[in-house]
Amino acid sequence: MSAFAVLLRQRIRRDWLQLTLWIAGTAAMAFAGYAGVTRSYATLEDRQNILAAALANPVILMFRGLPSGSSEGQFIAFQILPWLALLAALMSTFLAVRHTRGDEEAGRSELVWSTPAGRRMPTIATIVHGILANVVLAALTALALLATGLPAAGSVIAAAAAGATGIAFLGIGLLAAQLIRTARGANSLTVWVLVAAFLIRGVGNATGTPSDDLSSMTSSGVAWLSPFAWAEQTRPYDADLIGPVFLGLGLGVVLAAASVALQSLRDIDASFVAERRGRAAARPALASPHALVWRLTSGSIVGWAIGGAVTGILATTLGGVVDQISAENPAVTEVLEKIGGATGGLEQVVITVFFTLLGILAACCAVQTVVRARQEEARGTVEALLATPVGRVRWLADHVIVGTAAVLIVVAAAVLAAWIGIWSTDADGALYRIVAVAGLGQVVAASVFTVLTALVFVLVPRATIGLAWTLVLVATMLGMFGPLFGLPEWTANISPFAVTPVVDGDGVDVRGLWWLVLAVAAGAAASLALMRRRELAAGG
Questions:
Q1: What is d(CA 300, CA 294) in angstroms, rounded to the nearest whole number?
Q2: Cβ-based neighbours of 99, under 8 Å, separated by 6 or more
Q3: CA atoms within 13 A on the CB side of 100
């Protein structure tokens, strides 16, 4: 068997579970999208009302696709195509960094490079592995759409657009792995590029030109700067354009080739972006283990806090715009109530929806913080720390504490920004209380994932990264998209984000608060208790 075949087989065996979850989740979203549209927007008039509202409100276009008509297929593409492409992009970037910079940082690449495989073959195997993963994702997504009875041409184009976006971000991840010295830094860079590209797509759509019948939109030139916009420009179930698919494929191939060329120009463990030089002596604040955890994770926490602040300011400054639109299109209110679960005034519903998104951001921040423990364990760097009087329980507890603090920081940034938005718009003073209740509820919801990640780390350490992010993804799909897809109410209630307290008149409906608090307490106690008996599990 050739060296290439051996390396490709090794990557497939290593990633089969993670890729199965990503690919199956993407195909399931495509299939569920049809059921959601046919149940919630059964008539042409319902779909036209939503499209008219979207074209009149740039904010809706930031979180949905490019309108291309009001048929069932066109409306499904409007609702979920950006999210299908987003899942493919996340899968691909993590795969690219894991098998390049991640393996190099862990010391595995040096061993492989010393064999007849050489330096380039592992990267080439990773490129082929990533392309195959996206081909399978596109194929299963197309089958899921075809199974609903939608037209074949549009189904294939939509699936191909998602797969091409994944390949584009595969190239971005490979390039980031050459530029940045650490896997954590490379992943952070690719995520920020991904977020920026998603927002550019939304801005390009929002600043476009709507059609006279308010059923479609022509994007502005800004949109063409984003791979996500290329996917939308295929216009599935309408024009069914194949050209934009080749843009994504071309970008991915060019960046992948560039990453192979750059790898031959640097030494092992080197990078093209120099790391910041460290201090000759540590600060007094680094005299404790939890301070070390904070030092290692503070950069990412600040990034998530900025995202939280943006979410908070949008939550309280856009209520008036949405209110005007909903007066003419009541379907907008109905959609927002399904997502947020609140039944008060429209401004409260908008705040609840945005703070549900905030809870997801805070949970991602917490998972990234606690997962750091697994990364340190796999690389062997924690052994030096545990050789001191610091015990394993204390070490894990420090990650849980910092993860919880990270959740509080992200939510606090959002609450303060939301209050500033209320003050700047002279809105109803009752919104201050609504924001506070929504924020505190999402603190508890996000903290559930802090302790779940710690528990997974203790029980199945080698599955920590994949399983922890999968739990957040499943909760997001059920909490945000379950109601829109027409799933039973109990499925949405499985998600912690969907059962947080909301203001109900003069009181507060606590909903699932006490169950969430119990889950946090039990998860924290169980993870720390079980950590006493677990040995270190080095290796990936």
A1: 10
A2: 11, 122, 125, 126, 129
A3: 38
Give the C-alpha distances (Å, rounded to integers) separating 441 from 39, 355, 409, 446, 503: 30, 9, 14, 9, 11
Q: What is the rounded end-to-end Cα distance, in angstroms, of the chain?
A: 24
For residues 251 and 225, give the distance between their C-alpha atoms in angstroms, rounded to a whole number.
12
71 CA to centre of own chain: 29
Strands 217-218 and 502-504: unpaired
Which residue spans within 311-392 are E strands per DSSP?
none
Strand boundaries in 416-496, DSSP class E: none
Each residue's pLDDT expressed in tens, for the chain with a length of 540 residues: 688 899 999 999 989 888 998 999 899 889 888 877 777 777 888 788 778 777 766 666 777 788 998 888 999 999 889 989 999 999 999 999 999 998 888 788 888 888 888 888 999 999 999 999 999 999 999 999 999 999 999 999 999 999 999 999 999 999 999 999 888 788 888 988 998 898 889 888 877 888 877 788 888 888 899 999 999 999 999 999 999 999 999 999 999 999 999 998 888 888 888 777 766 776 766 777 778 888 888 888 888 898 889 888 888 876 555 555 445 445 555 555 554 455 555 677 778 878 888 999 999 999 999 998 888 888 778 887 787 888 888 999 999 999 999 999 999 999 999 999 888 877 777 888 889 999 999 999 999 999 999 999 999 988 888 889 889 988 888 877 766 666 677 777 888 988 898 888 778 888 889 999 999 999 999 999 999 888 877 665
Radius of gyration of the chain (CA): 23
Count of C-beta atoms within a 10 Å radius of residue 2: 10
User: Which residue(s) pair with 217 in the sheet?
Assistant: 210
For residues 396 and 418, give the distance between their C-alpha atoms in angstroms, rounded to a whole number.
33
| DSSP-assigned states of every residue in 447-460 | HHHHHHHHHHHHH-
Q: Which two tokens mark 90?
A: 């996340």
H/E element, 258:
helix 243-263
Tokens 């109990």 label which residue? Answer: 490
| Beta-carbon-side half-sphere exposure of residue 34 (alpha carbons within 13 Å) | 17
Q: Which residue has the tokens 């490379």?
A: 186
Instruction: Mark residue 361 as left, alpha or beta (left: phi above 0; alpha: psi -120 to 50; beta: remaining).
Output: alpha
Contact between 37 and 76 under an 8 Å Cβ cutoff? The reply is yes
The dihedral region occupied by 426, where left means phi > 0, alpha psi between -120 and 50, and beta the remainder, is: left
What residue type is assigned to position 262 of the chain? L
pTM of the model: 0.79
* Encoded tokens for 78: 């409007």
- 129, burial (CB in 10 Å: exposed 0-12, middle 13-18, buried 19+): buried
Name the token pair of 532: 């006493």
Please state the φ and ψ torsions of residue 217, each to the nearest 5 degrees. -140, 140
As beta bridge partners, residue 218 has 209
